[in-house]
Write a structure and sequence with these properties.
Length: 338
């Protein structure tokens, strides 16, 4: 009788029968291994959590009183009939791919990842395996990122122009990961102000030793008059809200991989948008998969159907895994097709 695969796909999440645990489950389970701290992958309600030491503080901050423990990158741990280890995914600080081995057969769950080092998150490391479960948020050839230094220089130029015209620059980026990447990567030229949701994460990461420049949390007494020409980093939900009134008539922009699609920028009513993604682009996805040496690939959230077809054309055994990931990805509701 054939044994079950190393990992199976259930209505609660990706399950390891021989280990008795789930990876990034979206419904409550007894034991969960978590790739990173975004809310679509780290959810409340599980009995026990395991993540990297680096991911643990943010997850605890977001989920509150949970039973959670940490593991070092690369540390092998026996759980039931399998050996697991966590490896850098490059997505956000503390993010990991999870490797599961049973009797020499290796499966890897990517979580979310990007392959270009950003100077803040632990850089992506390919993990050799037989089967690779990969995201494909940007799994179409149209998505090809420019080098980070080039994009950060473009943002710096935009900020300088706005400041010279006496205007505040408001740049939207997700409060965990994207916001800190922007803060660390944009060349300094003036004060950086932060929304409270961003600054809370900044403080947690600084306490862990991540190198973030000084920032100032926006309070009731801070605005365009106190910090002329400043750059404000805020979550996307802050755009177009009364919270921005303290900055007069600021220039607003959104940093996201979806800014590669001009229609998205136009529908959001943004004068400026910068293509900055914490997910792998088309080339990055293909390079990452090739580097694993795998022959089986399962695509999770993103452009799963076209990406699977492409993988099959390249000679891989490919499938699609239905998941509930995506609530805190870069995918805006209107961006469901290229």
């Amino acid at each position: 009788m054939a044994r079950e695969p190393v990992l199976t796909f259930t209505d609660r999440g990706i399950f390891c029968p021989d280990g008795g645990f789930y990876i990034d489950p979206w419904r409550p389970v007894d034991r969960a291994l978590i790739t990173h701290g975004h809310s679509d992958h780290a959810r409340w309600g599980h009995g026990d959590y395991l993540c990297t030491h680096q991911a643990l503080p943010v997850i605890r901050h977001r989920l509150g009183d949970i039973r959670i423990s940490g593991i070092a990158y690369g540390e092998a741990r026996r759980i039931g009939g399998v050996t697991v280890s966590f490896h850098p995914a490059g997505h956000v600080p503390g993010s990991a791919q999870i490797r599961v081995e049973r009797e020499g057969e290796v499966w890897v769950v990517s979580g979310d990842y990007k392959v270009e080092p950003d100077g803040l998150a632990e850089a992506f490391e390919p993990v050799p395996c037989h089967a690779f479960i990969t995201e494909c948020t940007f799994g179409l050839p149209v998505f090809r990122w420019q080098p980070q230094a080039q994009v950060m220089a473009e943002i710096s130029t935009w900020w300088a122009k706005n400041a010279a015209e006496g205007r505040i620059s408001v740049l939207a980026g997700y409060s965990f990961g994207k916001a800190q990447r922007l803060i660390a990567g944009i060349p300094a030229q003036g004060p950086i102000l932060t929304h409270g949701a961003v600054e809370e994460i900044n403080q947690i990461l600084r306490a862990q030793g991540y190198p973030l420049p000084d920032t100032t949390r926006v309070t009731a007494d801070i605005g365009a008059k106190t910090h002329p020409g400043a750059l404000v980093i805020a979550p996307p939900s802050a755009l177009g809200t009364p919270w921005l009134r303290r900055f007069g008539q600021p220039e607003e922009a959104f940093a996201s991989g979806w800014m590669a699609l001009r229609g998205i920028r136009r529908r959001r009513g943004l004068g400026s948008g910068f293509v900055v993604s914490d997910h792998a682009d088309w080339q990055g996805l293909n390079d990452a998969i090739r580097a694993t040496g795998c022959d089986r690939v399962f695509a999770t959230h993103g452009y799963t159907a076209p990406f699977r077809r492409w993988l099959e054309e390249q000679g891989y055994q490919a499938g699609i895994v239905s998941t509930e990931y995506g609530e805190e990805t870069e995918d805006p509701p209107e961006a469901t097709s290229p």
